[in-house]
Amino acid sequence: MTLQEFFGQLELLVCQASQRFAAVGDAAALEAARIEFLGARSGRLKQLQKALGQLPAADRPQAGQRFHQARQQVEEALAAAQARLAEHRKAIRSTELFDPTIPGLRPRLGHLHPISQTIEQLKEIMGRLGFSLADGPEVEDEWHNFEALNIPPEHPARDPLDNFYLATASHLAGGDAGPPMLLRSQTSTVQIRVMERQKPPIRIIAVGRVYRPDTPDQTHSPMFHQIEGLMVDRHVTMADLKSVLRMLGESYFHGEVHIRFRPSFFPFTEPSVEIDMSWQGRWIEMGGAGMVDPNVLRAVGYDPEQVSGFAFGLGIERLCMRQHGIDDIREFFRNDVRFLEQF
Ligand code: DAH
Prior knowledge:
By secondary structure, the protein is α+β, with helices and mostly antiparallel strands. It starts with a helix and ends with a helix. It contains 13 helices and ten strands. α1 (about 5-25) runs parallel beside α4, α2 runs antiparallel to α4 (about 60-95) and α3 (about 45-55) runs antiparallel to α4.
């Protein structure tokens, strides 16, 4: 074999090897091609290497260099084919993993917070008793939170340390301060708002947040919820109050409930009572109530000689805690889903 013939053979081999490797479609065909061209014993490159040894000694260095180049080209063609097949296998595997017939994963839906659930139940129960829903702002003036409720300026309940008074924009600007405003400390404010714009008979509830600067502990939170009830008509009595509260309790707890009144004092009721409810043999303090004080009726333009009314205010967290056996009010506001998802 002359040097020229040797070069021709090398070129032909590289060309054929490149075509074969580019065409193989699976691992077995690739392996067969590898053995044919690069096989260590009788591969075609090996055979040319033997021919190289037969060339005249003077031609060998040149021939050896070209041989080396050719082997590199064939090995690159093999590597390219291996990479191409690996890509292909990966693509097949990912389409096999996607099974369009598997039902989708349902996204987790939230549900109502236990306090919201209690509120919904209370509204529904009181609605059946003929009480409609009334509303008022959480930022109140002193008239609705105190004065109209017969709480005079020197009354301790108005202490700035016991209320969240607000610095309004005009306070902050240092200008004309305007009337003091505060976060309402009780939903009794809504009684006034309703009576100011409606004539008796009145049967309403108001539900919402109230605020007091209490340090949070097991039974206190600076924000909590109350349900307020108000009924004003001719001949409304404490007996009506007691039976409405009993029906409310029995509907909410789904069982026999007893109501106990303990004498108390609120500026806006006379007489005033603390309400205890017993369910499943345990007494719990639920809130306050009483007959609307004549001063309150007069403040909204009613005639205490003509109409009378009862009012009550219950803690919503208390009701919810008693129902579910929750012993720490802070759980409601931690927003730990492991707690919330139980309800
Ligand atoms: N507002 C009272 C409080 O937050 C609760 C209350 C007592 C409401 C007597 C009333 C009532 O309507 O008649 O402590």
